[in-house]
Amino acid sequence: MWKTSADAPIKTYKLATVTYGTVSAPFLATRTLRALADEEKAEFPDAADVICNDSYMDDILSGVYIRGPELLKDLSASSYVFDKEFQDAPVKTLGMLWDPKVDCLTYKVKISDKVNFSKRDVLSEIARLYDPLGLIGPIVTKAKIFIQELWKIKLDWSEQLPPDAMEEWMNFYQKLAKVNNFKIPRCILLPATIRIEIHGFSDASERAYAAVVYIKCFNESGQSQTRLLYIKSRVAPLKTLTIPRLELSAALLLSILVKKVVPILQLSIHKIWMWTETQRLLQRG
């Protein structure tokens, strides 16, 4: 409300957009999308489903392979074009890079020219390895193990790494640039897919344990294809645990991943397989 003078009538002003930068702005933005999806669900059911299930903050990450090209038309009804295929350079999507030319997820890791690192510097460099799906899990796991070794020697945050640790870190750090050459296919299904299976694997060592989830699909022509979906790894605790105990932890991690991944896919899964290389887990059960 506003008055130009003491005797002037009160004028009421109302914001027609979400104010950027306020504490409530993220909630209001997502709530607006939800309200729009609810209001237009009858006319645009597929688009409403994408907004409700495939959006994160102000990003919408979905595909038209299953839902059909008409989905883009629905989402573009407001004249905004959602199709990024025309772009030449990789597009940053949810913190990752997507190359629309080859339809692959890629990474961009920058290597500095530093020759001396402290524990704080090492943690800073490792934190830049943003990998929400764990697709470069083996690399990140090795970095986590190195950090654990630094904790064991009780190094201060600003203290330079000792010679042995510095040599090990530099050998690892200088090879990180090769991650930029990775190209991971985004599309996980074959054309005319008729059967989908989920295969999960778990394993453990004295240093770490991990679980990985794959999707395998079959089409009408008898072709099959397997794609990596998700990897999660954890460093073994400082307190020494037996290998069977770590393998049990890996199997538990795998079951958690599968329970998390399957509903997100929103696909008709025909069979789920979870594999482990040892029978000791069954014996412990």
UniProtKB/TrEMBL annotation:
Output the SUPFAM superfamilies linked to this UniProt entry.
DNA/RNA polymerases
Q: Name one GO biological process term.
A: DNA biosynthetic process
In terms of InterPro entries, this protein maps to:
DNA/RNA_pol_sf, Retrotrans_Pao
Q: What is this protein called?
A: DUF1758 domain-containing protein
What is the species listed in this Swiss-Prot or TrEMBL entry?
A: Trichonephila clavipes (Golden silk orbweaver)
Report the gene name.
AVEN_49887_1
